[in-house]
Each structure stands twice: as C-alpha cells, then as structure tokens.
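Listing 4. Sequential folding, example run.
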Amino acid sequence: MIGYVTLGTNDLAKAAIFYDAIAAELGVPRMMEYDGFIAWGKEGGGAGIGLTRPFDGKAASVGNGVMVALEAKDQAQVQRLYDIALANGGTDEGAPGPRGEGFYAGYFRDPDGNKLNAFVMG
C-alpha cells in the first residue's frame, strides 16, 4: 500500500497554489508543512502527496514514465480537477474522456512538469 508520493519542485510557492486548489476540490487539507516541504492528505485516508525542493540542492526534474493518479468521485469531478489544474499553472496532457472500458480520465502536468491524472472507474 502506498502511504504517500513526493514530487520535486523548483518553486514551492507556485506549486503550492496548484496543489492547494487540487486538494481543495478533493476535500484534502495540508497535513504537514516545513521549510521547503508541504504535504496534503488525511490521517487514516488514502495516499497523500508531498512537494519538496530536492534535498541534494540540485534542480527538480520530471521522472520519465512517472505519473500520480488522483481518484475522483465521478466524471464531473474529473473535469473540475482538470480545469482547476489548467487554471492554476498546469498544462494539458489529454482532456477528460473515456480511456477504455470503465475508465474515464483527464491528464495534466503541474507547474514543474510532473504528470498527474484525475480518474474514475466504472
């Protein structure tokens, strides 16, 4: 079971605006915040997301083939999450729509280029 996922950022303040908006739609608060690190999630809930400046001091970079999937409650929320992402500095990676039988998703990147999607099954 995944406890949390941490993504790198080069501009924590800018990335925080993006993730605060996404987390608000999902009803998930900030659960930790330290200098250079913020995490969103609920104790006892599903996996959380953390953002940090890389500890080695080098620039954050995007993982090729890495994606974080955010489970939505319905197709309308998939659309809202996608729209929120684009309105808060994210970029399009595939508009919401069916992606095979029983899978509906929208794909986007955060301001640092990390790939995410919002999805619903069924």
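-- end of first protein; second protein begins --
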Amino acid sequence: MKKLTFYLMVIVLSLNAFPSSLYAAEKNPTAIATTPKEMPENVKVMLNRLNEIKDMDKSNLSSTEKKELRKEVRTIKANLKSSGNGVYLSVGAIIIVILLLILIL
C-alpha cells in the first residue's frame, strides 16, 4: 500500500512539471528577441580582444609570446565569468532544498 501511494505521488508530481515546460514553449519568441540585453562596454571590449586573439596567426609567435597570450585569454575569461549575472547554487544549498522537499512530501 505504501508503494502505491509513493508511485501515485511521483506520477502527480511529474504531471505537474510538464505543463510548465509546455507553457514556456508557447510564448512568442519574437518578443524576447526584440528586447536584447545590452552588454556593458568593458565586456564588449574583452570579447573583441578574445576574437582578435582567436583570429591571430600564432605560427609566427615565439613560445613566450604564446604563453603571454594564453595567460591573457585566461584572465579575460575569468573576468567575464565573474561579471556574469548567473544564479549559482552551492552543493550544500541543493542538498538542503532536496531534504526540505523530502520532508514536505
């Protein structure tokens, strides 16, 4: 009997997840494309520099120059990652959320 209730709860919860993804697909994608998110000027400069380095002919460079370019690329990528507006969840936060969901259900 306990297995039956568990399976019913899993089915109900999984059915609740599907409509949200369906609603997200129904929205008009042109409305999102008409309002592009503007990038700050320093991010544009860093992206342009990365493209310049990528398009460069590196066969003529010495090994020290190549190392300097690699270091520059790493620092630019680190700066771009740190300037991102993403939402990050730590492993501990994810575990706490899962435990709370288990306790509630």
